[in-house]
Amino acid sequence: MRKIFVALLFCASIGVNAQDLSAEQVLENTIAYHDPNNNWETFNEEFTVVMSTPNASKRTSKIKIDLPAEYFNVTATRDTVTTQYTINKDTCSMVYNGTVLDSIEAKGKNMSCDRANLYKNYYTYLYGLPMKLNDPGTNLSQNVEKKTFKGKDYLVLKVTYDEAVGSDVWYFYFNPKTYAMEVYQFFKTDENGKEQPDTGEYILLSEEAIVNGIKMPKVRAWYYNKDDKYLGTDTLVDK
Questions:
Q1: Of 109, 127, 145, at which residue does a domain stop?
Q2: Where are the alpha helices (DSSP H) in the chain?
Q3: Which one, of 207, 206, 212, 238, lies nearest residue 60 by Cα?
């Protein structure tokens, strides 16, 4: 009987310890889950994302990210319009329905190199999570919160960024058993840097796709924090 009691006590202590990890350990565990072979640092792959939004036609984006070569390309098609943005190191180029545009022509199509960099940062950040949380300028709170969100229990990490990187406050929700990233959420801040609870969005992640050996969320569904209004869904699809 004593051996059984000790065994049960040992198992219970393992469970407690698993829930009392530091923020850095939780981040290490979720990166180990999503990128077990450390492939993100040398990521060089193409993938396709279909965006569905209410009252609008779908947009299909073919994305190429080559981190070692500092190369990014997104070719997006909606209805009869196809736009292409390319960042090759410090060089930006834009194409509209097969025609290469100069900066003046691009402006007339509501295209710009600023928008190209916006897309680069957007796709690289979202599809590089949680590995991107190790980037310079990222400030990881030392507290690991335990929250219930939409009826599920999570370990939650809070992240802020240096002023040069961004002003939003982000929360990342991880499965407490597998450390899979299942939700993230962000809030805007006011002029004093205070978090504004009625701003921002939350993103529900479901299913998985393997891209370059990395487990990426296949489906991202976006909602407003304020009223849970549905905004749209990004889905990774076969090439």
A1: 127
A2: 2-19, 23-34, 103-108, 113-127
A3: 238
Predicted TM-score (pTM) of this structure: 0.89
How far apart CA 117 and CA 86 sit, in angstroms, is 9
Our CA dihedral for 7, 12, 13, 16, rounded to 10 degrees, sits at 170
* pLDDT at residue 193 greater than cutoff 90: no
Average pLDDT over residues 54-71: 97
Query: CA of 14: how far to CAs of 7, 9, 142, 154, 156, in Å?
Result: 11, 9, 21, 18, 20
SS3 content of the chain, % helix, strand, coil (to 5): 25, 45, 30
pLDDT recorded at residue 18: 47
Question: Which tokens sit at 1?
Answer: 């009987």
Q: What is the pLDDT of residue 82?
A: 98
Whether residue 11 is contained in a domain is answered as no
Beta bridge partners of 125: none
Residue 8 belongs to some domain of the structure: no
Q: What is the CA radius of gyration of the chain?
A: 20
pLDDT band at residue 1 under the 50/70/90 scheme: very low
For residue 3, being part of any structural domain is answered with: no
Residue range of the domain that includes 225: 22-40+135-239
> What is the 8-class DSSP label of residue 135?
S
Q: What is the domain count for the chain? A: 2
Q: Which two tokens stand for residue 123?
A: 């796709």
Helix (H, G, I), strand (E, B) or coil at 212: coil
Do residues 144 and 154 lie in contact, with contact meaning Cβ atoms separated by under 8 Å?
no
If asked whether residues 181 and 233 sit together in one domain, one would say yes
Mean pLDDT score of the chain, rounded to an integer? Answer: 92
